[in-house]
Amino acid sequence: MNIDSRLRLVAATQTIRLPKDFVEEMYRTSAKFTELFETLEVLLDKKTLDRLKREEIQYRRKQYIVAKGPREIRKVLSA
Fold first, then answer.
1. CA distance 3 to 9
2. What Å distances lie between residue 10 and 14, 32, 52, 53, CA to CA?
3. Is there a domain that residue 38 lies in?
4. 2 in any annotated domain
5. Does residue 6 lie in a domain region?
6. Residues 53/44, Cβ–Cβ less than 8 Å
7. 22-31 long-range contacts, Cβ below 8 Å, gap at least 24?
8. Rounded Cα gap, residues 59 and 56, in angstroms
9. 32 SS3 class
10. What residue numbers bound the domain in which 47 lies?
11. CB–CB of 58/64 below 8 Å?
């Protein structure tokens, strides 16, 4: 077996074929795990959780400002 044959053999053994449906499902599953880990990260961060609870209370009490468009958003943020 010459060097070219060996290189082709090594290259061939480092490549695998997978069905498209399988790869798509793996991607969707990976995205779900990412979402799960992000949610756990938020739930484990006390400061973030406290801020979310405080903001939810403000939302229920209608203590928020509606800004329509970039100009109004800048105006609210600069106040």
1. 10
2. 6, 34, 53, 56
3. yes
4. no
5. no
6. no
7. none
8. 5
9. helix
10. 18-78
11. yes
Tell me the residue length of the chain. Answer: 79
DSSP sequence for 42-78: HHH-HHHHHHHHHHHHHHHTT------SHHHHHHHHH
Per-residue pLDDT of the chain (79 residues; tens, 9 = 90+): 566 666 666 666 677 788 999 999 999 999 999 999 999 999 999 999 999 999 999 999 999 989 999 999 999 899 8
Asked, for residue 12, whether it belongs to a domain, the answer is: no
**Could you tell me the pTM of the whole model?**
0.51
**How many domains does one find in the chain?**
1
How many Å is the maximal CA-CA distance in the chain?
78
